[in-house]
Write the structure tokens for this entry.
Amino acid sequence: MARIIQYFAHPGVSASRINAALWRTTEGVDGITRVDLYAAYPRYDIDIDAEQQRLRDHDVIVLQFPLFWYSCPALVKEWIDLVWEHGFAYGQGGTALRGKTLLLAISAGGPQDAYRPDGYQHHDLRSFLTPFEQTARLSGMDFLPPYVLYGALRADPAAHATGFARLLAALRDDRLDRDAAMGLPILTHDTLPIAEA
């Protein structure tokens, strides 16, 4: 059974529909360690030692956040900058994350057709997430395709939240077909390659 930690980061959670629904839904998934970064570190005073120990103690690291200016909210970047330091996540002696899995759970306000070369955003969503993918590679981690909801401003969160809970349970129980997943650009609630229990 994989040990999963879910880091939730939304600076405006009181106005969130999609990310708040995902966060509430995972309360019912057994065996998941859950951390609300903005609740834990409202002044960005990150406990580096505690966070590094949390990462050591888990096999799958999930970062859940809304897409902000083509990246993550500021606290997620600060958390990565401080916690995934040289000698811990990379560089000489930096092997603490080697062999672990990184999954991003992202919501994007724009529709899916905006995220293509001829669309409004001029790039696919994965292009904007390249720094996370490379960070995972540098740290010796497996980077799963991100779990994505497009059109989040108008979408109904129910199916997406249920799919997210199914995905985390499948990762925990080693029921996600990783080869099939790696062949997909993104994961959505209706494209999850999960073997039934």
In short: The chain has a mean pLDDT of 93.
